[in-house]
Design brief:
Blueprint lengths: L1 H13 L23 E5 L6 H12 L4 E5 L9 H15 L5 E5 L7 H11 L3 E6 L9 H4 L4 E5 L5 H7 L9 H14 L3 H5 L2 H24 L4 H10 L5 E2 L1 H10 L6 H13 L3 E6 L4 H6 L2 E5 L2 H7 L7 H19 L3 E7 L5 E8 L2 E8 L10 H13 L4 E6 L4 E5 L2 E7 H5 L6
Helix pairs in contact: 7-14, 11-12
Length: 428
């Protein structure tokens, strides 16, 4: 074991870093070597956590860092692997402090106890990363007993996507920009897929999906009814809204002996593993929020477009998902923000209600429209009704290319192209 670690350390110090494309998240912003806090980078598989660690090493100084990926097949899945690492560092470099970049550390038993001990008793600092729900943002503060700052990583946002494509949206012809936008909606923002040739993308995604199911669900939760869970996954890309009871009934109609409680447990696993998120109806009554239909969104658009049984592209819903991802990331990073949808007794519905500091700050409707007359009347009608019900004077409709402002029944409606809105979420 010691020889393997020795080889990995020397290889790390001698080999150059790979080419790293910049992301918006900069771990240096959260890191202070004088503060005994562990940074924990979490997120779905293949969203770019490893390159976020390597980006830190490049900026902080590779010679002051050590990177280990514990999914390396050469490394034993034993706690001794971690303790031997510290002993070997002391043997090779004395008391020199390092930033230990520990990738997929959840593969090692008792890793959290080791991490707390390193944090409390040595000069080394830790940045941990992992895909499994063992490293979810909900569980990490408990596991690390308040010694951690959790940094969530998501698929590429619109601006990051364009940077990966090495194009400048400010100089790009509009038609070509919209072509990139369509690609972003259809193929999502998982970095490896964004950079891959189109013919390889579905194969790569299939690999991600299989690994996610096996490692983060079947192994993690010791799942027995894999067929039931797999069929639930097949339902989600075709289910834009759901209740637990309806999902249970759908699975029963497919021949599964499953109850509502099991469905709730499965959905919770999907949320903990970052694969699925949901939005509840806006209501001051918490019970109403819980019991009313939820709107479902997957971690990345490509899962929706690839796993859906639809024969045609549903650009409108993919646009809605892109807007959700932007708003969701905002709410994760800033606890002052909350996200809901609005619906009244007459079926009028608005896609997103943005709450800031416990007050309604924004209403957002999303529709695939190339001209003002393409916008369904029900979309505008619902937005006006919601604005009046919530005492707002304005609302937004995110469109494909329509850009103008109208006052309808006393409510100012701003029509904003998706490509422009995605680039300025700070205006929310």
């Amino acid at each position: 074991m010691k020889q393997i670690l020795d080889d990995l350390l020397k290889k790390w110090w001698s080999d150059p870093l790979p080419t790293i494309k910049p992301r918006d998240v900069n771990l240096l912003f959260y890191f202070d070597p004088k503060v005994k806090k562990t940074l924990t980078v979490t997120g779905f598989r293949r969203v770019g956590k490893t390159f976020t660690l390597l980006d830190f090493a490049q900026k902080y100084g590779k010679e002051k860092c050590v990177y280990i990926n514990f999914e390396n097949e050469r490394l034993p899945r034993k706690t001794e692997t971690l303790s031997n690492l510290i002993d070997l560092l002391t043997e090779l470099r004395g008391n020199e402090p390092f930033v230990l970049l520990m990738d997929e550390i959840q593969e090692i038993p008792e890793w959290s106890r080791w991490a707390r001990n390193v944090n409390e008793t040595t000069k080394h600092r830790l940045i941990l990363s992992g895909s499994s729900s063992k490293l979810s943002s909900q569980e990490m503060p408990t596991v690390m007993r308040g010694q951690t700052i959790t940094i969530p990583i998501f698929p590429l946002n619109w601006d990051e996507f364009l940077r990966f494509k090495e194009v400048n949206k400010n100089t790009l012809p509009k038609d070509l920009l919209l072509n990139y936008l369509r690609e972003y909606l259809l193929f999502g923002g998982l970095p490896e897929i964004v950079l891959a040739e189109e013919g390889l993308r579905s194969l790569i995604l299939t690999g991600y999906f299989s690994t996610f199911v096996e490692r983060d669900i079947v192994e993690r939760y010791k799942l027995r009814k894999k067929e039931t869970f797999t069929d639930l996954l097949r339902l989600l890309p075709n289910t834009q809204s759901y209740t637990y009871s309806k999902l249970a009934n759908s699975l029963k109609s497919m021949g599964h002996n499953v109850g509502k409680g099991t469905v709730i447990r499965y959905m919770h696993w999907l949320e903990q593993s970052y694969f699925q998120s949901y939005v509840e109806v806006f209501s001051v009554n918490v019970r109403t929020r819980i019991q009313t239909v939820k709107k479902s969104y997957l971690i990345d658009n490509y899962f929706t477009s690839q796993l859906s049984s639809r024969l045609s592209e549903n650009i409108g819903y993919l646009m809605e998902q892109a807007v959700f991802h932007t708003l969701h990331i905002l709410s994760v990073w800033d606890p002052r923000y909350e996200l809901f949808y609005w619906k009244d007794y007459f079926g009028n519905e608005v896609d997103f209600v943005v709450i800031r500091n416990k007050s309604v700050s924004e209403l957002i409707q999303v529709t695939y429209a190339n001209t003002i007359i393409d916008i369904p009347e029900r979309e505008t009608k619902a937005l006006v009704k919601a604005a009046k019900a919530l005492n707002l004077l304005s609302g937004k409709i995110i469109t494909w290319i329509v850009e103008e402002t109208k006052i309808i029944d006393g409510i100012t409606i701003s029509y904003i192209p998706l490509w422009k809105w995605l680039g300025k979420p700070e205006n929310i």
